């Protein structure tokens, strides 16, 4: 079977989810991993059973056997290494958020287009089959006219003061790290872009003044809104609720599904039902969709323009939180 040979730039913690998923996918093989610390690269290669390792990102990009790279580096390095990977002729799956702002996202997209390589943002949850199912139910009027969405994604890691999430100059903060999920989910399910954003955040002096908690409102066309909160110093939650005139859809574990939960619950015209599909590894499905788009078998489901549009909203949310004002997009 045809396989895409992947290289991984960095020994980040997210590799625990992504690397085994690529290895278990129908299309992918992880051929090499790189770190600026050769010892870390060797340890990661041994941990995941990866054939080759490199002590620099440049070495991996020079490897002619690598077709695509996965970039799980800190946010401030996404632009540089996406562009360098593109110039080396490698397709790029870049971890979310794709960049520090919409301008960087556009630069990355343009570099990949010039090089003739694919670029995608690694929002794995969008590849779970239930997301298209939910979108179809909304379109079919299952919950009536849509009135609003509410999304939450929080966790508590505040004690780890050395974490990259708590470096302002590295793109730290809860909106970048987890707020981007409900923002992208609302845009995906509504098929529209918000007109304005309002947000309030807690910027922690103990954590380089990054936003440790943020609550926001996005104004979509037709009077529909997304309300959301995200945080890195709060109890764990990751849920989504979609409310209509005649019902609602509750999505437990919206971004990190729990195998034991129903995929989602539909309340429609006074009746409740659970929708449960077969288990799906959304990271594997993401890798497969990317590979097939590279081979021309499928259209890239979420092109770089979508990533740039999501960054525009993130830019507005952060501007609103800092300036304590409504921001028109």
Automatic annotation (TrEMBL):
One term of GO molecular function: nucleotide binding
InterPro entries reported in the protein's UniProt record: Gfo/Idh/MocA-like_OxRdtase_N, Gfo/Idh/MocA_domain, GFO_IDH_MocA-like_dom, NAD(P)-bd_dom_sf
Record keywords: Oxidoreductase
GFO/IDH/MocA-like oxidoreductase domain segment(s): 132-250
Keyword Phosphoprotein listed: no
Gene3D superfamilies referenced in this protein's UniProt entry, alphabetically: Dihydrodipicolinate Reductase, domain 2, NAD(P)-binding Rossmann-like Domain
Coiled-coil ranges per UniProt: none
Domain Gfo/Idh/MocA-like oxidoreductase N-terminal: 4-121
Pfam families in UniProt: GFO_IDH_MocA, GFO_IDH_MocA_C3
Similarity comment: Belongs to the Gfo/Idh/MocA family.
Designated name of the protein: Gfo/Idh/MocA family oxidoreductase
Organism: Cohnella zeiphila
């Amino acid at each position: 079977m045809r396989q895409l040979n992947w290289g991984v730039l960095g020994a980040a913690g997210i590799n625990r989810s992504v690397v085994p998923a690529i290895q278990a996918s129908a299309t992918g093989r992880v051929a090499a991993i790189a770190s600026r610390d050769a010892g870390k690269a060797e340890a990661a290669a041994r941990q995941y059973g990866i054939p080759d390792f490199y002590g620099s990102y440049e070495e991996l990009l020079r490897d002619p056997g690598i077709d695509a790279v996965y970039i799980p580096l800190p946010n401030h390095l996404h632009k540089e290494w996406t562009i360098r990977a593109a110039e080396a002729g490698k397709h790029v799956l870049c971890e979310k958020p794709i960049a520090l702002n919409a301008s960087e996202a556009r630069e990355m997209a343009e570099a990949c287009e010039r090089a003739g390589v694919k670029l995608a943002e690694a929002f794995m949850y969008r590849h779970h089959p239930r997301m298209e199912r939910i979108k179809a139910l909304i379109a079919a009027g299952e919950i009536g006219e849509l009135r609003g969405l509410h999304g939450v994604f929080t966790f508590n890691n505040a004690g780890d003061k050395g974490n990259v999430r708590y470096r302002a100059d590295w793109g730290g903060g809860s909106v970048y790290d987890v707020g981007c999920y409900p923002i992208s989910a609302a845009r995906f399910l509504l098929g529209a872009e918000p007109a304005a954003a309002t947000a309030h955040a807690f910027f922690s002096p103990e954590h380089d003044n990054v936003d440790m908690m943020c609550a926001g409102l996005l104004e979509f066309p037709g009077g529909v809104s997304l309300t959301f909160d995200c945080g890195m110093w709060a109890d764990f939650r990751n849920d989504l609720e979609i409310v209509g005139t005649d019902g609602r859809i509750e999505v437990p574990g919206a971004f990190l599904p729990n195998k034991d939960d129903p995929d989602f619950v539909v309340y429609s015209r006074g009746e409740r039902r659970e929708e449960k599909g077969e288990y799906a590894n959304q990271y594997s499905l993401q890798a497969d969709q990317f590979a097939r788009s590279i081979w021309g078998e499928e259209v890239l489901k979420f092109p770089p323009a979508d990533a740039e549009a999501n960054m525009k909203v993130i830019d507005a949310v952060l501007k609103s939180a800092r300036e304590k004002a409504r921001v028109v997009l």
